[in-house]
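Fold this sequence, please.
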Amino acid sequence: MYRLKLIFLVAIKSKALSAIWTFPSILFSAIMIAWGAESAQFLVSQGLILAIISWLQTAPEFVVEGIIAWNQNITLMTANFTGATRLLIGFGLPTVYLTAFIFNLKKKHGAKKYLTKVKLEPQNSIPVMGFLIPSLYAIFIVIKGSLHIGDSAILIFIYLVYLYILNKMPPQEVESLEEMEPIPRFVLKQKKPVRNLLILGFFLTGGVTLYLVAHPFVESMLALAVYIGVSEYFFVQWVAPFLSEFPEFVSASYWARTVKKAPIATMNTVSSVISELTLLVALIPIVYSISKGAPTVIHFDHLHRAEILLTAMQALLGFLLLVNMEYRWYEALGLFSLWFIQFVVPHIREEIILVYAGWILLEIILAILGRRKWWAFKIFWGLMKKHF
């Protein structure tokens, strides 16, 4: 028995040590994708590019969710997709602001000594509005207490409409090349065939590297978690999403270093949230039904519904905080604080739901009183009239 335990520990330690090469490989893939996206936004719609790279960056999360759905574990399925989405909103968005704040400490920001907010661009109103319907649909799932292939069809349709709108938007106007990062600047200075080949090369290199490394990376981190004694549920809801979405955090942090590109970083995270609230949730009943051998309805118990409602309320709050086309420091602090409390004390989910509900109500009241302007609605409809 001791011998078997020793062999198991050696195997686990060996897998954990593979993080030495998988971790830098993940960093490399994320930076390559970021360079490709930063260059390509001047050739096609920025929002469409961010939507595409959100698939690449969160692909490991889809793999993890698919495996759990295939094994028909409803509790872990719910834990994983809710944990992943809450991580993006509660940790990812605050990380964007914090990165922008730290990297711009020595710069002046108008009358302010420090960076107090990230101002979004007009085209960012589309991802912001794309936040709303999936968040409301998640609440609908909670109300009916089930998930089935019909929901998958609706969620996929919502996402396709979102992509269609993004595809109608024009590319970004080319900014002064001297203001860009060295690599994208070099790419955009090349002749069209070379430029396009380099951009394609960045996406392919980053995507293929991510595809090849994602599984051993997650495995190495799982082995590390087992080695230090982390429980399965905790790993699936908190650790696995962080690992599988790590490339997204790297790219967003890369862009957030400059105030001008902080909106791109914010929308990169929002695009990932939208893909998870639609495509990731849609994946679950499809894989679950295939595993069962027939179309099957997934029924949620009280715990599952509480987890989904908590996620939906957080997402709805995220929408309301961005709908005025600004993202302020105290909003980032609030999102992070509520997420961190869940991490430390996970059993108080019902209390956190009430806090989210109270904040949502406050945002709505402030809008009614004219203290908050929901500019995204007006800008979004303006873009629709202009490009459709």
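Residues 2-387 form a domain with the A middle domain of Talin 1 fold (CATH 1.20.1420.30). The CA atoms of residues 94 and 332 lie 5 Å apart.
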